[in-house]
Amino acid sequence: MTAIIRIENLSKQYGSGTKALSGVSLDIHEGEIIALLGPNGAGKTTLISIICGLVVPTGGTVRVGGHDIATQWRAARKLIGLVPQEIALEPFETVINAVRFTRGLYGEGPDDAYIERVLRSLALWDKRDAMTRELSGGMKRRVLIAKALSHRPKVLFLDEPTAGVDVALRREMWEVVDQLRRDGVTIILTTHYLEEAEEMADRIGVINHGELLLVRPTADLMGEFGKKTLTIELMEPLAAIPDALSDRALRLSDDGRSLAYEYDTRADRTGIAHLLGDLARKGIMVRDVSTRQSSLEEVFMTLVAEPRQEVTA
């Protein structure tokens, strides 16, 4: 796959001595959605800010569409749209003029038909003549996205794009993101809504303490690090787990009507067949069984707690 962004050995150390990034290397493929996950202060925003030309790196190189962000910054930045965490808009400007203004900053001529299409896709067309200061927080965030798209970028950065947005609006915004991906736009996002990353991202990168711990296709990451929980519903409640089953690491529900058994999907043997056989031999009748996959949040907490692993793109 073609890399539209190539990051090589990128580092950033501030004057205070704080290392925000340390030797980050990553290829981002054209047309993909990649989610960057990490705790606060992990280096996600610093990485985005460097690529977008807002922060100067201490070392390393970044190329966007083949253009070096340091020596060919004008060509590189023209390919990029950024939706920042902070809501910063022209308070005494209308929505449509704010988007027009941003388009002009990139040296693009007027194109009201395209701007109308962007505003309609974000449900902002009816608000086009409203002052930005009059909008709700969710609407203001939509305007930020419209501004970022105003010059038809090839790469869109979304830094916590749905923070403070209600569930319905969040879903609408992700539908827009999905359409952008279908249109060939490469999307890099940071988010604290881990279920969104799991649902939307083609790949997930985990950053902690300024280091890129790993990058994996989302499905592979869930399969590699995820665990499943087998829930066994019982015909009759148990007062306690029998001693003979104490080595099975079973958890008994408070009402005694179900057992939970966690197993590793990567293991050659899950132990489920033997467990069910042992229950039958003990006269414990099973009503039903079901499984649940670990969520990305659980996987993420496991990853940031583990020692650094080799990066794989």
From TrEMBL:
<dbReference type="Pfam" id="PF00005">
    <property type="entry name" value="ABC_tran"/>
</dbReference>
<dbReference type="GO" id="GO:0016887">
    <property type="term" value="F:ATP hydrolysis activity"/>
</dbReference>
<dbReference type="InterPro" id="IPR003439">
    <property type="entry name" value="ABC_transporter-like_ATP-bd"/>
</dbReference>
<dbReference type="InterPro" id="IPR050763">
    <property type="entry name" value="ABC_transporter_ATP-binding"/>
</dbReference>
<feature type="domain" description="ABC transporter">
    <location>
        <begin position="5"/>
        <end position="234"/>
    </location>
</feature>
<dbReference type="InterPro" id="IPR003593">
    <property type="entry name" value="AAA+_ATPase"/>
</dbReference>
<keyword id="KW-0547">Nucleotide-binding</keyword>
<dbReference type="InterPro" id="IPR017871">
    <property type="entry name" value="ABC_transporter-like_CS"/>
</dbReference>
<keyword id="KW-0813">Transport</keyword>
<dbReference type="GO" id="GO:0005524">
    <property type="term" value="F:ATP binding"/>
</dbReference>
<dbReference type="InterPro" id="IPR027417">
    <property type="entry name" value="P-loop_NTPase"/>
</dbReference>
<protein>
    <submittedName>
        <fullName>ATP-binding cassette domain-containing protein</fullName>
    </submittedName>
</protein>
<keyword id="KW-0067">ATP-binding</keyword>
